[in-house]
Amino acid sequence: MVAHPSVRLKSSGHIATIEPDPYQDGAFILDVDGTPQSHVFPDHPDELFFEYVRRIGHVIDALADEGEPITAVHLGGGALTLPRYVEATRPGSRQQVIELEQDLIDFVREHLPLPRQASIRIRYGDAREVLRKLPAGLLGTVDLVVVDIYSGARTPAHVTSLEFFTEVARLLSPSGVIVINAADGPGLAFVRSEAATLQAVVPEVIAFAEAQVLKGRRFGNVVLVGSTRTDLNDWMPRLMAGGPHPARVVADTEMKQFIAKAPIVTDNTAIDSPTPNKTIFQTTKR
Fold first, then answer.
1. Which H or E run includes 147?
2. How many CB atoms lie within 10 A of CB 244?
3. In angstroms, rounded to a whole number, what is the distance separating the alpha carbons of residues 75 and 262?
4. How buried is residue 278: exposed, middle or buried, by Cβ count under 10 Å (0-12/13-18/19+)?
5. In terms of Cα–Cα distance, which of 220, 257, 208 is closest to 57?
6. Helix (H, G, I), strand (E, B) or coil at 57
7. Which domains does the chain have, with CATH numbers?
8. CA-to-CA distance for 149 and 127, rounded, in angstroms?
9. Closest CA to 168 of 195, 193, 144
10. Residue from 249, 159, 255, 264 nearest 213 by CA
11. How many CB atoms lie within 10 A of CB 226?
12. Torsion angle defined by CA atoms of residues 260, 261, 266 and 269, in that order, rounded to the nearest 10 degrees
């Protein structure tokens, strides 16, 4: 049996491993505590593999004219898949990554180095604490904030609340967007409350995912997009066409129905995201 590079993370105690993708030559999977966290194709960073990451890539593509640089803040680092994608598709972009576990990033950069020309600054610490310490010049200038924070397979409660999203929204430029990777199971109680909470901060919210996930019939990832810009609905055909298929987008009156009476999450009521069944990840196990 081949031993793959691994490290025990000091903060969480989780084991992080980088393994070759058995189905795609030259690609690698970062696994943390038994959960596939990131997929990286170092020689082709513009190619995205995980379903929800491909959907976020479509949002990034829609943000501005093709190739135009953007300012991005990534909350949660993993193997830096999306910062690599932004650099590859929008050269010259300014990017900040906030990651709790420095030894994870050190491990990733050792085995999956970033492009030398990339303008990616990495800051370490808890997302909420570091957000308050970002340069004042970033406030109101950020085109893209990606919230993809996981401890193992779950999103910690303190980065799901109204207070947290309010802090995040302070970064946005007038046309900027917040993109959240939210994982949930049947019924989507967690995701519906996240959508309600995001809409309490920014007026325009859409959600998209694989059709059965968005109908609340099985566990999976839902991408939430929030903004003050009024053209998010114009993106729907492009997001639907981009796949992966089958896909579904919820917006406008459908979003009101989707949220229904879901409660807004506050620091006092926030809980971690649901725990997925381990069988969800069996196809990536070696």
1. strand 142-147
2. 12
3. 25
4. exposed
5. 208
6. helix
7. 53-272 (3.40.50.150)
8. 8
9. 144
10. 249
11. 30
12. -130
Residues 30 and 50 sit within 8 Å (Cβ to Cβ) = no
Q: Strand, coil or helix: what is 122?
A: strand
Kindly list the strands in the beta sheet with 172-184, ordered across the sheet, starting from the edge strand earlier in the chain.
Answer: 120-124, 94-99, 71-75, 142-147, 172-184, 220-227, 204-210, 247-250
Neighbours of 198 (CB within 10 A): 28
Residues contacting residue 152 through CB under 8 Å, at least 6 positions apart: 12, 14, 32, 33, 34, 35
Residue 100 tokens read as: 């709790």
Contact 105, 77 (CB under 8 A): yes
Q: What is the pLDDT along the chain (286 residues), one digit of tens a residue?
A: 567 999 999 988 999 999 999 999 999 999 998 889 999 999 999 999 999 999 999 999 999 999 999 999 999 999 999 999 999 999 999 999 999 999 999 999 999 999 888 999 999 999 999 999 999 999 999 999 999 999 888 999 999 999 999 999 999 999 999 999 999 999 999 999 999 999 999 999 999 999 999 999 999 999 999 999 999 989 988 888 888 988 899 999 999 999 999 999 999 999 999 998 755 544 333 3
Compute the C-alpha angle 83/122/36, nearest 5°: 55
| The token pair that represents 173 in the structure block | 């430029």
Phi then psi for residue 6, to 5 deg, are -150, 160
Using CA atoms, how far residue 95 sits from 40, 90, 138, 150, 193, in Å, is 18, 11, 11, 20, 29
Cβ neighbours, 10 Å, residue 116: 5
In angstroms, the CA 150 to CA 32 distance is 10
How far is 202 from 280, CA to CA, in rounded Å?
32
